[in-house]
Write a structure and sequence with these properties.
Length: about 200
């Protein structure tokens, strides 16, 4: 069960945003990721709880940020309920999309589990619902993912396979690179892996 800490920063000006303390593991239903977010000063700001089925679809998502809450799942596309800080008003949404995304590195791993790309496969288009901080506002985004390469690196615990993905935002054409080993993001825009207590899990 990988356990560690990501630091999140603004990908444009590198302003520190948060630390994400996480643990994750494959399970009988698929994969689960749980994390707590704190400010750089250490104050609690939110949490992420994501469970995927064995095909990479979101069985259950629960997000907390700035007293806002989102619960969602793959149902007729993706369906979610967003609750305001007072807890009085809740709004339901549904979009014919494949999955969810957001600032957490968990969503990068989740997208790769859903797409199951190989180095020889062509770029694949995916529609996602992004929940944007700080109020978890939903926004539908279209992306293209391609697996550029797969490389094994020697470590004390045996070879570590690292996948390099190219992600393109289809509305702007902006491209960036994501490096993932198993169920841990090694590098991505706005994401830095600062601490990892145990090696990444490998998927069958």
């Amino acid at each position: 069960m990988p356990r560690g800490r990501y630091s999140l920063h603004d990908p444009h000006d590198h302003t520190p945003l948060a630390h994400e303390h996480f643990h994750c593991a494959p399970g009988p239903s698929g994969w689960r990721y749980v994390s707590q977010l704190t400010t750089p000063a250490g104050d609690h700001t939110g949490s992420v709880d994501l469970t995927l089925d064995d095909l990479g679809r979101p069985l259950r998502l629960e997000l907390h940020a700035s007293s806002w809450q989102v619960r969602g799942a793959a149902l007729d596309g993706v369906t979610w309920v967003r609750t305001d800080p007072t807890g009085v008003d809740a709004t339901e949404g549904n979009v014919p999309a494949h999955a969810f995304t957001g600032t957490s590195p968990a969503f990068l791993v989740a997208t790769t589990r859903l797409l199951r790309l190989t180095p020889s496969s062509s770029a694949t288009r995916v529609r996602l619902v992004a929940f944007t901080d700080p109020v978890l506002a939903p926004r539908t985004v279209d992306q293209s993912w391609a697996l550029l390469g797969r490389e094994a690196h020697a470590t004390d615990n045996g070879p570590l396979t690292v996948d390099e993905y190219q992600v393109t935002a289809l509305d702007t054409g902006e491209q960036h690179t994501v490096h993932i080993a198993g169920d841990v993001v090694l590098a991505a825009p706005g994401v830095e892996l600062e601490d990892l207590e145990t090696p990444p899990s490998t998927f069958a």
